[in-house]
Specification:
Layout (H helix, E strand, L loop, with lengths): L15 H7 L2 H4 L3 H17 L5 H19 L12 H13 L12 H37 L4 E6 L2 E7 H25 L3 E2 L17 E2 L3 H6 L2 H27 L7 E2 L18 H24 L14 H23 L2 E2 L1 H7 L7 H10 L4 H18 L8 H5 L7 H7 L2 H6 L7
Parallel strand pairs: 3-4
Antiparallel strand pairs: 1-2, 5-6
């Protein structure tokens, strides 16, 4: 069994089953770099407070710097038998600095230590996700510009509704991502990294000796996991938005729609059916949204009944946090790449735009402009559309007399003009472009 940061009060060795059950280094090793940075900062605090001499502080700092450099270079060998990453680093430091390393834990607790490392990890990870959101937004903008004149059927209830510009359709996802960026930025600003909470009651070191923010409430500092919940919540919303975009592209790539062609580099095939080209990337993005929701619920549920202050349950916030960051980061990157190679099938889209029901609302407004109340105009056009469907005759092919059966205000040449996607989209004046 590995050397622990505690144990003086115990006369028995930990049962191997308990050792294995409580171990967290298999995932909290990801906090390694941040824990070392916290330790380097703590050395400075101890030197200021008089717990370390200048020479002792220099020796510990050098040992910690060596550990950091090895970690950053991928050369540090994490010990899978250690209790956690904090213990692993402490024991490695003792190999370099001898018993002097035992002074490092003065005025310190893992309760405070883990929060410092987790918050530092979150700050770096949020910055990365914000950048990846920006890159995906750039891909969406480029795609919008490339097809800026293309008009597509808009849908409600997955039924043809009204024509819309494809650039507006894509821009709607850009708006979602802008809100996602703001949520991540807000979560970043809410993270206040502190030191000096100790286990829960503070430490003998005066607050002014801490080089960064000294805690204003030590109990809250070690027991707060709001920042984890807030971040996972924001990431879950991002995952939901990406899932919706993925679903649209999955539907549009089917033979029934055939609006888009997904590049082969972002598809897979079938082990049985040689003709298949499957949008697996998009399907996984859609599926991972459930994982993100689960991560959020797991941390919320874990925290809901915990008394102050620290409880070992809180160890279980790390995997959902790491997993959520990793999934969303991967999705943002792969989706940005997929969009750069996406091709829209203008011919197939044009076929869908021949559906005259797409222009029914335009016909209603035509009658409204002729002085007919909206509700009455709505009823008239509804009957006209049903007549077209039942009789199998297009509205544009009806005679003016046939049209006037439904309303004397109908003039065929004016009606035909309205059965046009460009006329339809350009008639909408409320959209600020």
């Amino acid at each position: 069994m590995s050397k622990k940061l505690w144990g003086g009060r115990f006369s028995k060795k930990m049962d191997p089953l308990v050792e294995e059950f409580t171990r967290s280094i298999q995932y909290d090793y990801k906090l390694g770099l941040y824990d070392v940075l916290g330790s380097i900062a703590h050395v400075k605090v101890l030197k200021k407070a008089g717990y370390l001499t200048v020479a002792e502080a220099a020796r510990l700092s050098k040992g910690l710097k060596d550990i950091y450099d090895n970690m950053a270079a991928g050369k540090f060998k994490f010990n899978a038998r250690e209790e956690d990453i904090h213990t692993n680093i402490q024991n490695e430091l003792q190999k370099k600095a001898g018993d002097l390393a035992l002074k490092l834990h003065t005025a310190r607790s893992r309760n405070d230590q883990v929060v410092f490392a987790a918050k530092s990890y979150c700050k770096v990870s949020i910055a990365r996700v914000k950048h990846e959101i920006e890159l995906l937004n750039i891909s969406l903008k480029k795609l919008s510009n490339k097809y800026n004149k293309v008009i597509v059927p808009g849908f409600t209830h997955l039924q043809h509704a009204q024509p819309v510009y494809l650039k507006d359709y894509l821009s709607s996802y850009r708006e979602m991502l802008k809100r996602d960026y703001k949520r991540m930025d807000c979560a970043l600003k809410n993270i206040k990294i502190t030191m000096g909470a100790g286990a829960l009651a503070g430490t003998p070191v005066p607050a002014g000796k801490y080089g960064i923010n000294a805690t204003t409430n030590s109990l809250d500092a070690v027991s707060d996991r709001d920042f984890v919940i807030e971040i996972i919540s924001a990431l879950a919303v991002i995952a939901m938005h990406l899932s919706r975009l993925a679903e649209d592209l999955i539907i549009w790539s089917t033979k029934e729609f055939d609006f888009v062609e997904i590049d082969e580099a972002f598809c897979t095939g079938s082990s049985l059916m040689p003709q298949k080209k499957n949008p697996d990337v998009l399907e996984l993005i859609r599926g991972y949204a459930g994982r993100l929701y689960g991560n959020l619920i797991s941390v919320l549920t874990m925290m809901k009944g915990l008394p102050l202050t620290y409880n070992r349950d809180m160890q279980l916030d790390k995997e959902p946090l790491f997993n959520s960051f990793e999934i969303v980061s991967g999705e943002l990157k792969v989706l940005a790449g997929l969009l750069t190679r996406l091709r829209f099938n203008k011919e197939k889209i044009a076929e869908h735009l021949k559906d005259e029901s797409l222009y029914a609302t335009d016909l209603v407004y035509y009658l409204v402009d002729e002085g007919i109340a909206f509700k009455n105009a709505h009823t008239i056009v509804g009957k006209l559309v049903k007549h077209s469907l039942v009789r199998g005759v297009l509205i544009k092919d009806m005679t003016e007399n046939e049209l006037k059966v439904f309303s004397g205000k109908f003039i065929k040449k004016e009606v035909v003009k309205l059965l046009n996607p460009k006329v339809s989209v350009e008639s909408k004046k409320s959209i600020k472009r």
